[in-house]
Records
---
Amino acid sequence: MRTTTGAHYGLRDWIAQRITAVFMAVFTLVVIVALFTGVAESAERWRAFFGFGPMRFLSFLFAMSLCYHAWIGIRDIWMDYIKPVWIRLTLHSLTLLALFGYAGWCIEILWRL
Amino acid sequence: MAAPRSIQSPNKQRPKFLTLTAIRLPLAGVVSIMHRISGSILFLALPALIALFGLSLESPAGFERAGNLVKQPMIGIPLFGLAWAYIHHFCAGIRFLLLDMHIGLDKDGARRSAVGVLVVSLTLTSLLALKLLGVF
């Protein structure tokens, strides 16, 4: 039987998961290099590092990428192991709600800088 | 319709029950399931990680408090476990990206890269442990 809805979201999510992964990997390397230069040595430098315009912008993108990436990954886990529709729907909803909340929380942290 | 020969054959025990405990998961499979497990652990830890990140950026006092928190074994040791999860997820993820690009798809190549992921991620995690313990 052919599914008549959601014709492309599988491929779109597959690509999104990979693009966000590459972005997060590069961001991680940037942060590691920064840690070696001592940005975590004092509160002032730590704040200045994440408060620096471009870094704040990239950190925001990292948080968004993380949430999208995690959504696809966790959704795949529910789809693989949880069969009863209502439990799956509940878990999907809880995951989405949690990730939206986390995204908002990250924005709040970054926008205060 | 007649059943295929293999099913009719008397010297084959059918159905075949697989002894799950006796089957060894190939290394590529180990890396794969660990990628999923590490990802789930990181997802579950997100609120704690965001809270810690927020605290560290809140104020100089918050930065101090976050620094003291991570030095406590009850928090530091789980955090170190999360560092392993991140490092493993990172390395295994790069392997999957290469596989997506059809690099190392053959059996030997896939096995070698799986070993590579385990070696690199455990080495990096050990280096981090040594760094945190102040060895270098």
---
Amino acid sequence: MRTHSLFDRQTILVLSLLAAAAILVPTMNELPPPGSALHLSDHLVPLLGKYVCFALLALSVDLIWGFSGILSLGHGAFFALGGYAMGMYLMRQIGPRGVYGDPILPDFMIFLNWKELPWFWHGFDWFPFAALMVLLVPGALALVFGWFAFRSRVTGVYFSIITQAMTFALMLAFFRNDMGLGGNNGLTDFKEILGFPVQNGSTRIALFVLSVLALASGYLLCRWVVGSTFGKVLVAVRDAESRTRFLGYRVEHYKLTVFTLSALLAGVAGALYVPQVGIINPSEFAPANSIEVVIWVAVGGRGTLAGAIFGALLVNAGKTWFTAALPEFWLFALGGLFVFVTLFMPRGILGAAGDLWERSSQKLRARRSPQPATHAAE
Amino acid sequence: MVFLRNILQATVLLLGMASAALAGAYEEALPKFANDSYVDTDAAIGAIAGSGNPLSIDVVESLRDGRLLVGSGQVFFRRTSGELVNAATGQAWGNQTGELKPVRVNNRVRRAIEAALGSLTLLSSDAAKRLEAARAVFRSRDEATLPTLEKAIAQEGQPHVRNVLESARAAILLSKQDALPIQRLAAVQTLRNRGDQEALALLSNLPSQAPPEVIAAAGNAADGIRTRLAFWEAVQNVWYGISLGSVLLLAAIGLAITFGTIGVINMAHGEMVMLGAYTTFMVQELIRSNFPGLFEASLLIALPLAFLVASSVGILIERTVIRFLYGRPLETLLATWGISLILQQGVRTIFGPTNREVGTPAWMSGALDIGAMSLTYNRIAIVVFAFSVFAILLLVLRYTSLGLYVRAVTQNRRMAGSMGIRTSRVDALAFGLGSGVAGIAGVALSQIDNVSPNLGQGYIIDSFMVVVFGGVGNLWGTLVGAMTLGIANKLLEPYAGAVLGKIALLIAIIVFIQRRPRGLFALKGRAVET
Amino acid sequence: MALATAALVSGATAGAAKAEETIKVGVLHSLSGTMAISETTLKDVMLMLVEEQNKKGGLIGKKLEAVVVDPASNWPLFAEKSRELISQHKVSAVFGAWTSVSRKSVLPVFKELNSILFYPVQYEGEESERNVFYTGAAPNQQAIPAVDYLAKEEKVERWVLAGTDYVYPRTTNKILEAYLKSKGVKAEDIMVSYTPFGHSDWQTIVADIKKFGSSGKKTAVVSTINGDANVPFYKELANQGVKATDIPVVAFSVGEEELAGIDTKPLVGHLAAWNYFQSVETPENKAFIEKWKSYTKNPKRVSNDPMEAHVIGFNMWVKAVEKAGTTDPDKVIDAIVGIKVPNLTGGVSEMLPNHHITKPVLIGEIKEDGQFDTVWQTDDLVAGDAWSKHLDGSKDLVADWQTLKCGNYNTVTKKCGS
């Protein structure tokens, strides 16, 4: 709210950092010889790609939590659904290269004696269809779920709890082998994406750059949404829902729109995540995962967008470091982070930094001109 | 009576001696135990049980309890008093063990032991032993026991033992080749009256060469039993539902208090349950190593301790974290989730990741049979316990000053504060109470579930569903919610399977919340606006 | 930001890359999360084996160094951690994974980076990869002998196949169903039941089992119920009075570790099929248990089947490295086939060309003290089948990495992989 231009200072900073990452990561991976201090090891590329996907997921959560006050504890479900749509495409691409050599049926169907492809698998061999499903499936679920929930004014913790129930129910459903989606083992052993081998270094780089691009576009989209009149109403809903309703806004429509948009972003994040980690399995639906996403946002700074990205990268890098260096302490660190951030940094790291910046720049301005800084008319 | 039995035993003994003298079956069978072969052991048991030797019972019972020993080709048994006896002569053999090894048993041998003891102890002076024997004979359907069985029926004084004896006789007669049709018809009637799954199996597996009128009668009887069983099965499912509902009630009721009073979503609630379960484990460990005599009371001793441990941890959490977050329910949710992770990993670090063993006291083992339904004592105990906890909480909230304050704060915090209630103290105590109740739920759950660091995780979503479904701020809502979900789950399970049933229920709750966003028993008035 | 993260990560992991003089061994077992309950002990076993090997003077003149990471029961994290072990820490071999899904998750990584994984847990079979060595049991080394035992010794005619709904029970039960039917068991005498992970309310299912078992024919339960769900299952069995003499339960996923959390007195006589029991009386096992107890400083610490699998796998790897004279994966993969090492049950296990090993099959009955009493065992070691002969999809497939150089050779089409 400090500025209304789409390209304010924060946006430019975020976009240039992302651009730098999109350029530097491939160069550092390709050019310097292995062993040099500048070389970025091969195994870090998909790892960073994974972080970027998580950042997009965190962004989608920040959009609804930070700006509309909707705390979804089931956003992992949309992420996973997008991932499954992509996974189904990748499974179909394996074709006859599975261990049983069946040109149509994925391996897990063969050894469970499935005779033909279930109906919902059809079409997934065609990338545009799969890409559409990446958006459509999470979007449709969010639309239906949100329509019911917002229409009957389920809010606050009640909404959070039923989103948990939703993702838990989906997890149980996907664990069932009879669903035809691989049960607990999920979808794995992918070979190619759009004709490029997924294991290949250059495919990895391409996926990474794509993820960064998706994150940048997602960021711009969110920026644009929250900067628009629509976004103002969202903030009004967050801060005083009843009042906004009495002013004549159809609150549930606003909430439904932003919730669905957020689910679409989460779905895209999931779709980009799957080829980079090489597996999608029902544990992505685990209620705990969705709660963890919220903490990324909280750490970075709720309602700042850039904070969500920052928080996701920071916490996940921390997880990588802890699970290697101090395996026993990872849960202590994560749990402690939850408590610390909610208690001492309610606005997150970026929020706190922003406050600091605000204060010092206000002082500066106050020295320059006696007039207080006013916000433009809203 | 005693006199009669003595005479009888003497007769049996004499007869046994006679047959032993004839065949020497006992002496011949005994060395087979030393072969370390289950087939030989099995054969030896049969021979010994039929030998009539007075030592037979001792030998077979010792074998069952692992007190039958072999060494250097000889067979011994150790009396419960510790005295070592040479099984061949019945004479004491000093107290040295030397290279004695117990005879190994497997299921096949165990079955043979059971059948043998059945025929050997039908005339025992102990009614419990006779009952056990009658059941064993009913299972083994050994025609050779028929004469003893008749004798046992004739002199049986206890009606419930007599019933089982008669059904054992019926079971034998039904499939006995040369039984008279009239005997068989009577057997059908006896089994019809018994009316359980086993009787049904006997009646529907009648040998095809049986007389047609017997087959027809058996068919009728089987149909009758099926109808009866179908009825009881429905009742049984409702019971399972109530028992699952009680587990949910226990897990959720503490949550209902904290959520209702202070609007705090305590994601660490499941960990309070876990702490209660681990307290039970600790208590049992202490009792096992120091006061083994108290084991039967271990759960009762654990109850107050579990309450104390969990509620202190709860109050600690409230004082150090949650009180700074009032009015920000979503943040509390995140902070308590963090606490739950810390508690889980903490317990994992201290106690290790593996399950801990919590024993079941004898009074909670076994089952009570009502009609064709069997209610296990531990489930009964949990149901009774859950309802008592519920009643006590109800009374506490209704008749104590703490309860009064809690209710006041639940209904209108600011007004309560204006009236001089120290709301922050009430918050802490309510949180402690809720956590303490979770702790004692842990004592109960330790009886039916894993005692592991993950224990709480399994219940957290279910208990939230109960609270949300039942509505906040009213314990009756929690009770109705828990029972509805429990019973619905168990009624769905036979048709939809465990997984689909659960999914269906979750979806039903999600839909239900849309209809009544504040649950079944919503608080009315301004309190719910925030 | 991504760069800062990258720097953080590489900085963190670079610290571990010190002297080049050691041979590194990766240990990939969950130390937190739901699988920690089973996997933590395997980490300890690996640390003990490495320490012991170093006491013997290391391997081909170098010291061994174990690199432990925590995949936290999170399947994508398994892939990430294995990549880290191989690329960053340059480990020569990895010992790890427990669940099928964690193995499936790391498979592509091991293939891509051409490293070696030793997988120590009994599994559903239907797999043979060049980079993976399966030291746990395949279905024909556990499930089928157990069923044979029940049919022969206990005269079982009616079968309940109860399992957790995931791939191992599904496949095992498919194989068993086909096998039982081929032995003349009728469809109505087989009851199949699946439950979700962590299922805790077994009242209905145990009652169903009792009902199914009271038809007059001898009934047994073949349980592929996983981990955590077993404790409430056995507690319910005990409470409802299902005794081993009436309806025996034979389990494939319940070992000494799992029983340590249960009061076993009411369960005496129920069975388990494994390739190792702690109670097996051989000098090798006695020595191992002594070492294990003194290493963990816990006289009550139990040992179990996957631990033995790691012992065998580790010893095979050591021998193969000595034979090849290098830790280069390609050379070790070639050298290890045919390597024989003594197992802990008195036999000598051999690595087969299909990357499975030969193992004895033991049937044990639960004793009062939580141990197993071996009531039956195969006369000879059984060779592990990568592909089940009882499934339509795999009956024509064979795996042979020595001569055919193929994990899924079709004997009908005479082609590899189709």
